[in-house]
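USER: Study each token:
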Amino acid sequence: MSENATRPVTEGGLLDGKIKYRQFASGHRSGFEPVLLAACVPAQVGERVLEGGCGAGAALLCLGHRVPGISGLGVEIEPDMAALADENFKFNGFRNISSLCSAVEALNIAAAFEHVMANPPWHLGTSTQSSDKLRALAHHARPSLLSEWIVKLVACLKPHGTLTLILPAIAMAEAEAVMRAQELGAITVFPLWPRAGRPAKLGIIAGALNMRGPDRVLPGLILHDENGITEAAQAVLRGGEAISLS
């Protein structure tokens, strides 16, 4: 039993209970972002996937459920959180998915992965930080951190491998510029609309290493309507369906 047993942990589920999910009662709490992120990764059986900043493992759990047979590695800077992610992977039977306690910007991993994904910290360092250490680590970043993450994560990719990020709209321009400088092509943006007719504050951006192709902005996904979560969003968030960026 890990030391996480001494910290309050809540029991819950992902994908309408298909996955059992434990997370700390305080600090950073998983929302819909890791589920949507995992849905956009075009992994196939037998491929290797790395996640930067995996938290308690929600995205890799969702991807492992949708694509049985992948191998995964979640990188997480906070030791207790990394240990909890490992517990979640084992509890759900994903023996080929594990965690590594490390800062993403300090990674030194060979180009061994077909796919890399991340939900990077993005709040500017000048904004008010949470007094909770785990929440601050998950949300706040110094100005250069996003660029550092992208450079390190791309270095983990095999040729033609994909990088998929979920980011706020205000970070998209920086991400695209760094991705292009790291020789990612066919860059695709998938907006996440809170409601029809509302600006998208969040979206997915993806690209493939050493690939040529036109950049695209796809129609995206509307998350809510007058009845709550839209049917299209429920198919992903509860049903575990993939989102095709191809």
In short: The longest helix spans residues 79-91. The longest strand covers residues 157-168.
